[in-house]
Amino acid sequence: MIVDPRTLIAEAQALGLFQPHGAFEVHCSHCHARLDSRGDCATCGLIGRPASELERRAQTDPDGTSNLLRAAIEKRKNFKPVGAREGKSPER
Description:
Layout: H1 5-14, H2 51-60, H3 62-78
């Protein structure tokens, strides 16, 4: 299933995935995990580059850009912060 990269970019922006980092930053501002060499977070899906860069990339590599965005969106949707109180009884 091929999805238009612009649609995925809009969804990623709605989830707040685009947060460009400085070159000196090594930890994610969202989950505090270590960033990869591109400034992306493998834990929560944060993309450490501006959306405009991915829009330019989508013009030459729409499939690769769509795959990157789809993976980041799935990571964010599946991300559960450490210490979240999911499934615990309210009696505690």
